[in-house]
Amino acid sequence: MSMQFQELFAYTPDWILESIPKLSLVNLMSCLKNSVGDFYVANPGTSVFLCVFMLYYVYYLKNVVKKPELVCSNETFRQFLIENCPIIDEEFKPTVWCSSHHGQTLLSNTIRMAIVPIPQYRREFVPVDDDVPPKPGQNREFNMSKSKNSTVTLDWYEGPGPTIQLPDGQKFYAELLEKYNVEDFVYSPKISEDDGKPIAVFYPGLVGDSQTEYVRTAVIMANSLGYKTCVFNNRSRGGLLLKTPRLYCAANYDDLEASLQHIKMTHPNSKIVAIGISLGGIVLCRYLAERGDDALVDAAMLVSVCFDFRAGLASLTEPGFNSMLNLHLTKSLIRLVEENREILEKTGKYDIDEIIASKNLAQFDERFTHKMWNYSSVEEYHEDASNKNRIHKIRKPTLCINAADDIFCPYSALPLKQIQDNPKCAMLVTARGGHIGWMDTNLAILKPALFYLERLIVQFLEAVKNKTSDEILNNSKFKQAIFD
Predict the structure, then answer these.
(1) Domain spanning 69-130+149-238+255-308+386-483: which CATH class is it, in words?
(2) What is the dihedral of CA 311, 316, 318, 322, to 10 degrees?
(3) Is residue 406 annotated as part of the catalytic site, yes or no?
(4) What are the sequence ranges of the domains in the chain?
(5) Family per UniProt (predicted)?
(6) What's the gap between Cα 165 and its chain centre?
(7) Mean pLDDT across the chain, nearest whole number?
(8) 0.70 exceeded by the pTM?
């Protein structure tokens, strides 16, 4: 008997030892080998499954788990991000059973929808221009005197409590009008509410609003950090219908700018951090580039942004999941047109039945979007909506995050060189993550900070809290560390 077994049995009562056969270590190993072998022989399916899983897990560790790529030429800004957002310097580990971009895109948001609490908001109406700019791609500074009917909304999350529950769909529209007195809305900034707390404002995606699953978690977490938190709802989103025949598009930031002007007017002492997600990020990116130093934010984050429309739409036409998601988004936009059919038909610009028959986003833009915004062709609209060649004009500290496998913006379409050439910008690129996915192995389903994306947003918001743009980009602490 080996020395290890002798030591073990030295502490074993005699009555137990008497009942155990005296086995040699060789006999014991032989017995275990035969038992395990018998198990696999009796369960061939389990054997195959375990072998396949082990092979996949080796592949997963070698090819899937990777450290993100951080593109940033400004060493001070880079060190600021790494120091304050440690998740940037860690490997991104997609959920083992859901590492594909299809699964990341679909299941991550399904899980968010199922388990994240539904926030209650206080709704604020912001007047915006009634008509569409006469020239394509034209963005105008908002003139309140020209607005008679149109509004967008800001939904403010003030923590758990008996605040107003947002309406669910159009059936509550009449009740909403009565409750908020929208018809007789008067613009009245409430300066008294300004307490100097930082503000985080979220701009959702193409068909998103304040109750969209990927917004809800971030809103709750931002509030817990001490931010005043609000979500921007585009025209005809969040339970409202159009009052004038104008929707929204990727190439116009008028409404976004009006919302920021309103926030700054009512909270002049607050720092503003803007987070744009998908379409919201596209519009925010355009605003940051066009307004430069005059942009009314102190820092920004762009999430899953398509920087090249032609590349993104080409990817969305690929057979399978890409085309299915394309169709799903198209149908969501068609519902907006159907809900506002009466007011849109009065313009005489559109064939509504033809729009409703659209099978993909490119067709929808061809039959509707480019006409609304006075472009000569859909190609002109898509080119104007692409921000890849505007990155150099951004003057506020901006962190972008994209996944290399995002079907809306493939890796080849990411503006990495443009980001590298702008010391105000940084881009984090993960190998996996899909579109607004980033579901990772930290599947803490009982906590609101679920996935990699939410944790990054929380760390970024904490890092830039109450800091000016100059303090973020030119932090003396990190400059000293670099020169040392």
Answers:
(1) alpha beta
(2) 140
(3) yes
(4) 25-64, 69-130+149-238+255-308+386-483, 312-382
(5) Belongs to the AB hydrolase superfamily. AB hydrolase 4 family.
(6) 23
(7) 83
(8) yes
